[in-house]
Amino acid sequence: MRGTLVRRTWEYDPARYAPPRFRRACHYESFVPDGLSAFDEPFSADLVGVVSDAETAVHRLNAHARPALAPLARLLLRTESIASSKVEGMQVDARDLARAEARLETGGKAGSTAAEILANIDAMELAIDHASGSSAVTVPDLVGIHAALMATAPNAHVAGVVRIEQNWIGGNNYNPCGASFVGPPPAEVPRLLADLCAAINDDALPPVIQAGLVHAQFEAIHPFLDGNGRTGRALIHVVLRRRGLTPMYVPPISVVLAGDKGAYIAGLDAYVRGDIDAWLTTFAVATAQSAVLASSYLARVEALQDQWRAMLRTTANPRADSVAWALIDVMPAHPMISVPVAVAATGRTKAVVNEALLQLEAAGVLTRASQGQRNRTWEAAGLLDLLADLEAGVTLPPPGA
Question: Terminus of the chain with fewer CB atoms < 10 Å: N or C?
Answer without folding.
Answer: C
